[in-house]
Specification:
Number of helices: 12
Radius of gyration: 25 Å
CATH topology of the largest domain: TIM Barrel
Distance between the termini: 60 Å
Structural class: alpha+beta
Length: 596
C-alpha cells in the first residue's frame, strides 16, 4: 500500500487532488489504520465524485469482493475477468456496481481486497462507497462520495485498515473484528423456516401457500411468503387477484400454526407500471435531465429507485413497514436493496450511501424487534440495520451458472464459505435449502452440499420445497442435516473450489467437513486438520458412516463430514425402500425434527 506515492508509515500526510485536500493520519495496531479527512479548497460548492487515496501492487491472483449480497467473493485472475467483461455481451447494471464507469478499463473489488500478501479493507461505508479498482497490474484505492461539498467543508472518509497476512482466512477474521469496532449490531439467532420462492416462484397463490402451510409438520420457526403476491413492485399493501383475502389474513393463518409470519418486499424499488410510480414521481432518484434513473430491469419492466433523501418517501416507507407489522408479520425479507444506493440527483444533498442508510434506519425503526433479512444489499452500509443477510447468489435446483451473481447452487454455497467471516456482523443467510429429490436437476451429492453446508455453518436454514411431495428419504435427510446445526464454524480455504469447515459443538458434536465444489476427486489426509485426538475418541465419516482413518478421498461436487465420536453415538433407523434398497438414517439425541 502506498499513500501519496510513499509506502505506509505512521504519522500524518497531506495530498491535494484537484480541488480537494486529503489529510491522512496513519497509526499502527494489528496492521495500519488510516484515517482520512477531505476538504473542499474552493470558495464555491464542489461535487465530490470518485477520489483516489492510494494504490497497491498486484502481481497476479487477487481475492475480491462484490459490494452486494449476490455478487462473488472469491479468488480471481483479474486479467481474465477484465478480458471476459470487455469482450462479452454481458450488460452491466447497478446491481453489479454503483461505480459502473470503472469497468471500462478494469475491474472493481468493493470494501476489501487481498493480493498474495497484503489485505486492505475499509471499516465502514457511512458517507462514501469505498472500493479497489484493478487495472494494468495495479490496484487503485478509491472512494465514491456522490454529493456536493460546501465551500471549505471538511468530511471524514471511511477508515482504511491494511494488514500483511500469512493466511487469507486470518485476515478476513481480523477484518471482521476491526469492522465491529465501528458498529452497533442488531441481534437475532439463526432461524429454521420455509419460504415459497424456490417452489413456486411467481406462480404462488393464496391457495398453494395455504396448502404448504397445512403440510408444514416440521418445527419451522418462520413461514415466509416471497415474491408473487403484490399488485406491483412498489404497491406492496395491495395484493393481486391470486390473493383475494389479503396479507393480514395470511399472517393470521401462519400465526395460528405457531410460526412467525414472514413477508418479502423490495422496498427501494418502483416499477414503471405501479401506482406509486404514477402518483409519486417525486419519490424517485433522477438523472441530470430530471428523468427517473433506471436502477435495473426485472419482471419484464424498468425498475426505478426510491429517493431516500426525500422526507415524504421516508414517511411512506415507515408507514409501509409499520402497517405490515400491524398485520402480524415478524420476519421481513427486504430485497433488491442496492436500488437505494444508485448514483443520481436526490432531493437533499445526501450521498447515495447516506441516503441508503437513512432508508435502512427507517425500516429498522418501523419494525422494532422484528427480524430483518437483507438481500441484494450493499453489505458494509447495512451492518447494524439488519439481523441477517444473504451473502451469496440465489441458489437454484441446478448446479452451474456464471459466477456473476446469477442463480447457481454452486456459487451460492461458495459464497457461504468465503463470506462465513461476516457472521460476526449478522446471521449469515446462504439462501434456501432444497432437500427434494423430485423437480430438481441436482444430484444426490449436490443436494447434500446444498443441505449440509448451511447446517454446518449455522446461518439461517430456510427450506423451499413442495412439502407434500417430499419422500421419507428426503425428510430423513433434512432432519439429519438439522442435527449439524447450532455449532460455531470456521472455514479454511484450500483453493477456490475446496474448503474445510471445522464446526465446534454442533448437535452432533465436533465435526470436520470437506467441501469439494470442483469436478475432480480431492485426496487429502485427516491428520492435516485434527490437532489432537481426544480420549476414547474415534472418527466416522458421513455419509458413508465408516471409520475414518488418515487418507480421505472426496468425490467431485460432494461433502464429506468426519465426526469426532467418543461416548456419544448417532441413533440409527433402518428402512426398506420400494425398490429393495436398504436405507439407513442417522441423527443425534437432541432433535428429531417432527412436531409432537
Amino acid at each position: 500500500m502506498r499513500i501519496n506515492g510513499q509506502p505506509l508509515k505512521t504519522g500524518v500526510n497531506r495530498e491535494v487532488i484537484g480541488n480537494f485536500e486529503l489529510n491522512f493520519s496513519i497509526s499502527k495496531f494489528r496492521g495500519y489504520l488510516i484515517e482520512i479527512e477531505m476538504r473542499n479548497l474552493l470558495d464555491t460548492p464542489k461535487f465530490a465524485g470518485e477520489i483516489k487515496i492510494g494504490e497497491m501492487d498486484s502481481n497476479g491472483e487477487i481475492f475480491m469482493n462484490n459490494f452486494q449480497s449476490w455478487g462473488p467473493c472469491t479468488f480471481v485472475n483479474p486479467y481474465e475477468v477484465s478480458k471476459l467483461l470487455k469482450f462479452s455481451n454481458f450488460q452491466l447494471n447497478f446491481g453489479i456496481s454503483p461505480v459502473l464507469w470503472e469497468f471500462r478499463d478494469g475491474i472493481v473489488s468493493d470494501y476489501f481486497v487481498a493480493t498474495d500478501r497484503e489485505f486492505a479493507g475499509f471499516l465502514s461505508s457511512k458517507l462514501s462507497h469505498p472500493y479497489f479498482k484493478w487495472h494494468d497490474g495495479k490496484i487503485d484505492v478509491k472512494v465514491y462520495i456522490g454529493k456536493i461539498l460546501l465551500p471549505h467543508e471538511s468530511v471524514k472518509i471511511e477508515k482504511l485498515w491494511v494488514y500483511e497476512f500469512n493466511a487469507i482466512e486470518d485476515a478476513l477474521q481480523n477484518y471482521a473484528l476491526e469492522v465491529l469496532s465501528e458498529k452497533t449490531l442488531r441481534s437475532h439467532a439463526p432461524l429454521f423456516g420455509w419460504e415459497s420462492w424456490y417452489s413456486y416462484y411467481l406462480d404462488i397463490s393464496q391457495e398453494t401457500f395455504l396448502k404448504e402451510l397445512e403440510n408444514a409438520n416440521l418445527k419451522y420457526e418462520v413461514f415466509q411468503l416471497d415474491d408473487g403476491y403484490e399488485a406491483d413492485i412498489g404497491d406492496w399493501l395491495r395484493t393481486n387477484s391470486k390473493f383475494p383475502d389479503g396479507l393480514e389474513f395470511l399472517a393470521r393463518k401462519i400465526k395460528e400454526k405457531g410460526m412467525k409470519a414472514g413477508i418479502w418486499t423490495a422496498p427501494f424499488s418502483v416499477s414503471e407500471s405501479s401506482e406509486l410510480f404514477r402518483s409519486h414521481p417525486d419519490y424517485l432518484v433522477k438523472d441530470d435531465k430530471g428523468n427517473p434513473v433506471v436502477a435495473y430491469e426485472n419482471w419484464n419492466k424498468k425498475i426505478y429507485a426510491i429517493d431516500l433523501s426525500n422526507d415524504e418517501a421516508i414517511e411512506w416507507l415507515k408507514n409501509l413497514f409499520s402497517t405490515l407489522k400491524g398485520y402480524g408479520y415478524e420476519f421481513f425479507k427486504i430485497d433488491f436493496l442496492f436500488a437505494g444506493m444508485v448514483p443520481g440527483k436526490r432531493k437533499s444533498n445526501l450521498s447515495p450511501v447516506e441516503s441508503y442508510t437513512r432508508g435502512m434506519k427507517a425500516i429498522a425503526e418501523a419494525v422494532g424487534e422484528s427480524h430483518i433479512l437483507g438481500c441484494g444489499a450493499p453489505l458494509l452500509p447495512s451492518i447494524g440495520y439488519v439481523d441477517s443477510m444473504r451473502i451469496g447468489a440465489d441458489t437454484a435446483p441446478e448446479w452451474g451458472g456464471m459466477d456473476i451473481g446469477t442463480p447457481s447452487a454452486k456459487y451460492s454455497i461458495r459464497n457461504a464459505l468465503t463470506r462465513n467471516f461476516m457472521n460476526k456482523w449478522w446471521v449469515n443467510d446462504p439462501d434456501c435449502v432444497m432437500v427434494r429429490s423430485q423437480r430438481t436437476k441436482l444430484s444426490k451429492n449436490e443436494r447434500m452440499i446444498n443441505l449440509f453446508v448451511p447446517a454446518l455453518l449455522n446461518g439461517h436454514f430456510l427450506e423451499s420445497d413442495f412439502l407434500g411431495e417430499l419422500t421419507d428419504e428426503d425428510i430423513h435427510l433434512l432432519i439429519d442435516a438439522l442435527n449439524f446445526r447450532n455449532g460455531h464454524a470456521t472455514v479454511r480455504f484450500i483453493d477456490g473450489q475446496r474448503y474445510v469447515i471445522t464446526t465446534k459443538n454442533s448437535r452432533n458434536g465436533d465435526v470436520v467437513s470437506f467441501v469439494n465444489l470442483s469436478d475432480s476427486v480431492w485426496e487429502d489426509n485427516l491428520s492435516n486438520y485434527i490437532n489432537e485426538k481426544k480420549e476414547d475418541e474415534f472418527f466416522i465419516s458421513y455419509p458413508l458412516m465408516k471409520s475414518a482413518g488418515g487418507d480421505l478421498k472426496i468425490d467431485p461436487r460432494s461433502v464429506e463430514i468426519v465426526l469426532h465420536r467418543g461416548k456419544r453415538y448417532l441413533k440409527r433407523d433402518d428402512e426398506k425402500e420400494d425398490d429393495g434398497r436398504d436405507i439407513h438414517y442417522y441423527w443425534g439425541d437432541d432433535y428429531d425434527g417432527v412436531k409432537i
